[in-house]
């Protein structure tokens, strides 16, 4: 009896500290902009700081998550007032920045696969389908072309893979954490996701010690794997 009570209490605690994001809830848990921008196509050749690497072979996938609060606070005020994600920031916590096919032998950022194919602008149906997980059409377009094309055949395959990986993580309720440090976030992730292990997750804070990004690494069969050699 007592042990049943304890497990019920344990379950309730577990359910309040984490939110398992099933696919249906990810898709529907945010407001959508009434109109998308007209042109959100991406062309790495028009960017002075971009390059192409079609030679590197991807050996693992890195899921990069971004903390909305810090992202928005780091933007100039006018952008905070205009970016949909920031105007609606209470709906967006830990969103997806991208899924990066990486080469484990790479010894510099340029040695990873990048900008493998030019692709057409994705349609509004696809963008809106994944908007709650990645709340910006430019981001959805550019991550597909910059990273997705280096391993995935279609944008649908790329975005469905991201949603499956993101949706199968138990995400801590970071906004309610009392002591937000990289070590505490990491250990909470490890507790909530029993098959995850320390070398497969990296938590980075910004120069003001605010949570910036969380990277989680998967092998090509989508099992957790260490992020670096
Ligand atoms: C939008 O793009 C997706 C993926 O390329 C495609 O499967 C779908 O049919 C398109 N939908 C419309 C309405 O054009
Ligand atoms: C916050 O957590 C860190 C471990 O990440 C610990 O060293 C520190 O003492 C904690 N601070 C408070 C105020 O609880």
UniProtKB/TrEMBL annotation:
GO terms for molecular function: ribonuclease T2 activity; RNA binding. Residues 1-23 form the signal peptide. Keywords: Signal. The keyword Signal applies. InterPro entries: RNase_T2-like, RNase_T2-like_sf, RNase_T2_His_AS_1. The keyword Signal applies. Gene3D superfamilies: Ribonuclease T2-like. One of its GO terms (biological process) is RNA catabolic process. Belongs to the RNase T2 family. This is Uncharacterized protein. It comes from Adineta ricciae (Rotifer).
């Amino acid at each position: 009896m007592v042990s049943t009570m304890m497990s019920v209490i344990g379950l309730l605690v577990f359910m309040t500290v984490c939110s398992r994001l099933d696919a249906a809830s990810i898709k529907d848990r945010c407001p959508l902009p009434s109109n998308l921008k007209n042109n959100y196509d991406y062309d790495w050749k028009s960017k002075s700081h971009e390059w192409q690497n079609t030679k590197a072979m991807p050996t693992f996938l890195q899921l990069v998550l971004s903390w909305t609060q810090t992202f928005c606070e780091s933007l100039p005020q006018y952008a905070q007032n205009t970016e949909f994600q920031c105007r609606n920031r209470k709906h967006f916590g830990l969103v997806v920045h991208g899924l990066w096919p990486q080469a484990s032998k790479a010894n510099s950022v340029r040695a990873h696969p990048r900008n493998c194919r030019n692709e057409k602008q994705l349609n509004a149906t696809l963008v809106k389908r994944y908007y709650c997980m990645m709340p910006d059409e430019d981001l959805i377009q550019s991550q597909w072309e910059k990273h997705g094309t280096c391993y995935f055949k279609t944008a649908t395959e790329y975005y469905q893979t991201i949603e499956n990986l993101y949706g199968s993580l138990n995400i801590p309720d970071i906004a309610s954490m009392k002591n937000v440090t990289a070590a505490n976030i990491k250990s909470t992730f490890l507790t909530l996701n029993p098959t995850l292990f320390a070398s497969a997750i990296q938590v980075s804070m910004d120069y003001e010690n605010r949570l910036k990004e969380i990277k989680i690494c998967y092998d090509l069969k989508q099992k957790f794997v260490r992020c670096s050699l």
